[in-house]
Amino acid sequence: MLDEIFDGINPYIALLICSAIILTVSLAGAFIPQLREMNSRQIHLMVALSAGIFLGILFFMLLPETFEEATDGMGAVAWILCGFLIILLVDVILKRMHMSTCPHEECIDKDHGHKMTSFSAFAGLAIHAAVDGMILAVALHLGHGIAIAALIGIVLHKFADLFALSSTFKLTGIDKRKVILYLIIFALITPIAAFVSMPIIEMVEDISMFIPLAIATGTFMYVGIYALLPEAFHERKDSIISFVLVVAGIVAIALISMLLGGDGHMH
Predict the structure, then answer these.
(1) What is the pTM assigned to this prediction?
(2) In b/e form, how buried is each residue of 148-169, taking b as 16+ CB within 10 angstroms?
(3) Residues 6+ away with beta carbon under 8 Å from 152
């Protein structure tokens, strides 16, 4: 049984193993788009697939788990909306700061727009990545079976996170070495958050991850719908292909969720 993997292992060693798995999968997602040079059309098609994967994770994993944890449906909606609005505010602030430092015509060109999309996605997903670390620490505290389910869910969308970020950063014109540094920093957020959370969680009873999970779901919703989907359909001549790839991403996650029998939830 999967839940026997961590039997007899110190929680911190188990967390180290989980973190190594998450980091390996994350870096794979980050480096795949960077392995070869691609034109704008190919990158936008990759973003379309990423958007579909994001929507699949949102609707088949995160939203069901959030409402399962909630005691009040309207409360869940409110906290999800809160997460969405937090990243919208961050996006607005980033754009205003950028425009104030670069008031020239070039600031509205494609590369600058792609930079804003990439960094707003980075900000939103960074919050989600930190919550993932907290969830993993909580799951290890609650039991090995729950930890395995959490690990599966986190690994699935962590690959999607880094794949999407890597794809959008390729559109920005930022130096490749800087992009790789940003992606490595992002990949480390979840493991670091998990190790920081573990000693705190050990001191707390009756842990509930509902509010942070709902906020993280809202940030994920923002990135998938507001950042990735518009970028996926940026190349209008490929709109049908982009739509097919979006649907393919959704269907892939739906099938994975069905194969896991519901264990694709966060915990």
Answers:
(1) 0.70
(2) bbbbbbbbbbbbbbbbbbbbbb
(3) 260, 263, 264
Judged by phi (left if over 0) then psi (alpha if -120 to 50, else beta), residue 111 lies in alpha
Report the half-sphere exposure of 200 (CA within 13 A, side-chain side).
11
**Could you report the per-residue pLDDT of 100-111, keeping only the tens digit for each?**
655 555 554 555
DSSP reduced 3-state for 32:
coil
Handedness of CA 16, 144, 129, 163 (dihedral sign): positive
Do residues 267 and 150 touch, judged by C-beta distance below 8 A? yes
Who contacts 61 (Cβ-Cβ below 8 Å, separation ≥6)?
153, 156, 157, 253, 257, 264, 265, 266
Helix (H, G, I), strand (E, B) or coil at 247: helix
Helix-helix angle 73-101:110-142, to 10 degrees: 140
Q: Return the C-alpha torsion angle 231, 236, 238, 240, nearest 10.
A: 90
